[in-house]
Amino acid sequence: MYAQIKNGNLEKYPYTLEDLKKDHPSTSFPFDPLSNSELREAFNVVEVGKKSKPEYTSQTHKCIEKTPVLKAGEWTQAWETKTKTSAEKTHADSNQWTDVRNQRNQKLQETDWQMTKAMETGEDAADLRTYRQKLRDIPQDQTNPFSITWPEL
Predict the structure, then answer these.
(1) Is 104 exposed, middle or buried, given 0-12, 13-18 or 19+ CB atoms closer than 10 A?
(2) 41 to each of 17, 46, 66, 101, how far by Cα in Å?
(3) How many CB atoms lie within 10 A of CB 89?
(4) In this predicted model, what pLDDT tens digit does every residue of 15-26 receive, in sequence order?
């Protein structure tokens, strides 16, 4: 990740190869010019160091990348966590429930062959039926899509 600096201030972030070419259309650049520290310096581009996101609960908060900060001569990513609005929480819950249903459907598909085999051979499939029913009941039985307790076979 890179940023463009002018007069010691961050001008543009993120700054990409496309930005560099657009800003200097009459310049011919070598392959991957941003990986070259001398070229970056010549065009006022700095590398931005990665910083891990802070820990947060994705159900109630969101993590937003802020403008990079200069500390001890190094530009690094900056993060901020904010509480989600009610609408954002509803949207996140809806998306998470979709993911849960997709996982549940995958687990059901993974046992389809066992159910078919049991029906064809007359095997006792009571445990398998119970497992599959628990999978189907997840959206009704569990209230938090971010903390699903999956049944086991």
Answers:
(1) buried
(2) 14, 7, 23, 50
(3) 15
(4) 999 999 999 999
Structure token pair of residue 46? 């700095």
Residue of 110, 102, 92, 112 lying closest to 138 (CA atoms) = 102
What's the DSSP call for residue 86?
Answer: H
Spatial distance between the Cα atoms of 75 and 83, rounded to a whole number of angstroms: 26
Q: First vs last Cα of the chain: how many Å apart?
A: 46
Rounded CA separation 153/141 (Å): 18
| Angular region, 141: left φ>0, alpha ψ -120 to 50, beta rest | alpha
Ramachandran angles phi, psi of 70, nearest 5°: -100, 115
If you compute the radius of gyration of the chain from its CA atoms, what whole number of angstroms results?
A: 26
- In angstroms, the Cα distances linking 140 to 8, 74, 92, 106, 150 are 57, 51, 18, 18, 13
pLDDT tens string 60-114: 999 999 999 999 999 999 999 999 999 999 999 999 999 999 999 999 999 999 9
Would you call the peptide bond into 14 cis, given omega within 30 degrees of 0 as the criterion? yes
Distance CA(116)–CA(129), nearest Å, equals 11
